[in-house]
């Protein structure tokens, strides 16, 4: 199981063009270490879009769903640092999902990723989950160029915090499929084959949107502890 925990937080957003350089420096040297110091946060990875939008995807792997509603996490969100306060107004179109990891297959998380977001119809959820978990996802990591597949489902609603008040209310995430690999072209081929909205809609999914990403920075709690 390549993902490190039973739950994950998935974020997608854009940043004002003039703030991108500072954002990436802040996110690498302050924000990721701050988040990974919270009990239960296991690894955080910032991805940058190579095809599609939004520009950024951030995935936090956590030990369990309760980590994302814990007092320690909410305390950080309600007491942002001065640098964080200065960065929040530059965020645009934030989506944030507190998700359970339904399925995580493969050997390793690759440096290239394909993210597909969608909403299942109420009467199709169980059928669509079985199709993905039992049939479609398990063989994908064996394809040349691919490494892992991860199905995430929204399982908790984020509460309003000081950080969110500064940047504006976040939109939610329903279901998300992340496929990673070691060859960008393998993800591009998969997107062309599996990204057709008509195919998803036949299985009861709507609002299908896909984008391809490359990992830009990753930090684990173990890495952080080794520095101390």
Report on this model:
The chain has helices spanning 20-36, 71-78, 82-87, 125-136, 162-167, 184-194, 197-202, 221-227; strands at 7-15, 41-51, 56-62, 91-106, 112-120, 146-156, 175-181, 205-220. It is α+β, with helices and mostly antiparallel strands and 228 residues long. Strands 1-3-2-8-5-7-6-4 form an eight-stranded antiparallel β-barrel, surrounded by four helices. The longest helix is centred in the N-terminal third of the chain and has 17 residues, at 20-36. The radius of gyration is 17 Å and the shape is globular.
Question: What descriptive keywords fit this protein?
Answer:
globular, 8-stranded antiparallel barrel, 228 residues
Radius of gyration: 17 Å
Which range does the strand content fall in? 35-45%
Helix content: 25-40%
- Poorly predicted runs of 5 or more residues: none
pLDDT averaged residue by residue: 94
In terms of structural class, how would the helical and strand content be classed?
alpha+beta
How many strands appear in the DSSP assignment?
8
Biggest β-sheet description = 8 strands, antiparallel, barrel
Number of helix segments?
A: 8
Largest beta sheet: strand ordering: 1-3-2-8-5-7-6-4
Distance between the termini: 28 Å
Principal-axis shape: globular
Order of helices and strands: EHEEHHEEHEHEHHEH
Question: What is this entry, summarized?
Answer:
By secondary structure, this protein is an alpha+beta fold.
């Amino acid at each position: 199981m390549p993902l490190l925990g039973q739950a994950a937080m998935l974020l997608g957003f854009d940043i004002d063009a003039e703030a991108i350089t500072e954002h990436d420096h802040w996110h690498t040297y302050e924000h990721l270490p701050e988040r990974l110091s919270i009990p239960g946060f296991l690894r955080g990875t910032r991805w940058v879009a190579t095809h599609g939008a939004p520009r950024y995807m951030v995935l936090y792997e956590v030990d369990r769903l309760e980590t994302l509603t814990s007092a320690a996490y909410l305390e950080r969100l309600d007491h942002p640092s001065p640098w964080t306060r200065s960065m929040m107004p530059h965020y645009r179109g934030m989506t944030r999902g507190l998700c359970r990891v339904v399925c995580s297959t493969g050997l390793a998380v690759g440096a290239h990723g394909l993210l597909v977001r969608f909403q299942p119809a109420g009467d199709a959820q169980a059928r669509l989950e079985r199709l993905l978990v039992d049939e479609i996802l398990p063989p994908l990591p064996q394809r040349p160029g691919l490494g892992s597949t991860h199905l995430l489902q929204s399982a908790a609603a984020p509460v309003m915090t000081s950080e969110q008040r500064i940047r504006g209310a976040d939109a939610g995430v329903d279901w998300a499929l992340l496929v990673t690999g070691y060859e960008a072209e393998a993800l591009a081929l998969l997107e062309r084959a599996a990204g057709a909205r008509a195919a998803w809609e036949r299985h009861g999914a709507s609002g299908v949107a896909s984008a391809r990403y490359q990992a830009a920075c990753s930090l684990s709690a173990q890495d952080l502890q080794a520095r101390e």
